[in-house]
Please model this.
Amino acid sequence: MADPKAWEDQLIAEMRANDGKVTQGPLAGHPLMVMTSTGAKSGEPRRAILTYSRDGGDYVVAGTAGGAPTTPAWVHNLEADPHASVEAGNETFDATATVIKDGPERDRLWAQHVETLPWFAPYPEQSGRVIPVIRLSRVG
Model:
């Protein structure tokens, strides 16, 4: 699809129609969420479709940008304002994001993320950077 926003809209519509599941295309079967953060510069809502793993009751996402050499903008948005809205499965909730860039907790969460989602394993070498891991904790 030539228009990325139209592709995202179609993907989100399919997720909403199927309790968060995508049944067709390259993301079929992946655990996906829609996370909305606030743009660090614009102050406008910014959405990202992300693959997640779980750590207890929290959701864990990684700032891989598909193995690109730069960290995705949504990570910077969460650093500027850790409040986010998360739509996963058939529920939407507010969350607080903790961006973890190094240390034992980051390493543990990354290893757990890769164990759940093995296609993430080559991203650090491919990107040439340490991938930040983000914990999304439900508010309330």
Notes: The mean pLDDT is 93. DSSP finds four helices and seven strands in the chain.
